[in-house]
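Researcher: Please translate sequence to structure tokens.
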Amino acid sequence: MSYIIQRQNRFYVVAYDGLDPLTGKERRRWHPVGHNRDEAEAIARRLDRDRDRDRAVKPEATGGQVTLHVFLTENWLPRKRREVRATTAYRYAWFIEHYIAPAIGDVPLRRLRAHHLEDLYQQLATTGGRRGDGLAPKTILEVHMIIRAALGLAVRRELIEHNVAQSEQIELVRTHSTTARSWTATELATFLGIARSHRLYPALHLAAHTGMRRGEIVGLKWSDLDTTSQRLWIQRTLQCVGGRSVEFGVKTRTSRRCVHLDATTVNVLRRWRQQLLRDGLPAGVDDWMFCNTKGRNLHPESVSQLFDRLVRRSPVPRIRFHDLRHTHASLLVASGEAIKVVSERLGHAHPAFTMHTYQHLLPGMSAAAADRFATLVATANR
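Model: Translation complete:
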């Protein structure tokens, strides 16, 4: 049941979202509406209708049992589409159709056991990749989280009694390491030196010198750049959805941020804009900062593919485009920059996340801090 709350002059619709499978506490989702109560009541009615429709589970004609695939696609996924971004929902659907359904999609929910999941994860780890070389542990973990969340919903709807995805017997997906890969300053400089001759070098240079996400880079417009104060405003992102480039707002509230640029990077962007004008390509205030040779915005995947080609030509370790972001952060942390500054620069939701991701760089810094403190005390005694 959804209800309406008024705070000052704004209305909010609060929808009951079931029990948290881990804590057992009730979960409620807040939907900000605005200043119109009639609109809030209409949204509350729509949310209630959607919830009631989700409760109607469609069993298969044979045997009257709901299979995992049917429950994922007809019940869990429609619910998630209302809660997550379109790119995330597309990724969930792709994982279901390509990884889960072919292997265990036909298994009825009530007959699903831990060994089914263990066999699935083992198969994905050995032959699940596009080239049959196995998936990364992180991807298998994402598959596991989809199944666990879906079975949690099935438990709350009393379709099954126990969530087998929470079994302690399942160990394969828990071996993923969160240590980020990155380059040293020398390796980064070597790569940028080789990439300098490419037309889209400015985009790679900007990614390396700001730690911006791929979608944030291709989503920039010239109106986001202030050359006087040497700042860049990140306000949108371009994501790949179903093979197309789609514009969204930034990932989180803290992702909408201002990034300060160094003088060299500002000059790189100035020269890039002048080149666009010489080539007769759009470079106005409302035009995309980075475009292809036809003046259209860059597709996010094309940037990653360009990066991979240049890395293969460079005498540096293989990393992903996203690891430029890790490289930027790692070099700042290793140089002694404050974690809060690094966190704000990357647009992380909280400095604690930054600390957790790059904590492997801190032991050496802690030892150096101890030496500096001892030197301060010794100097004061003298």
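Researcher: Any highlights?
Model: Residues 19-24, 173-178 have pLDDT under 50 and may be disordered.
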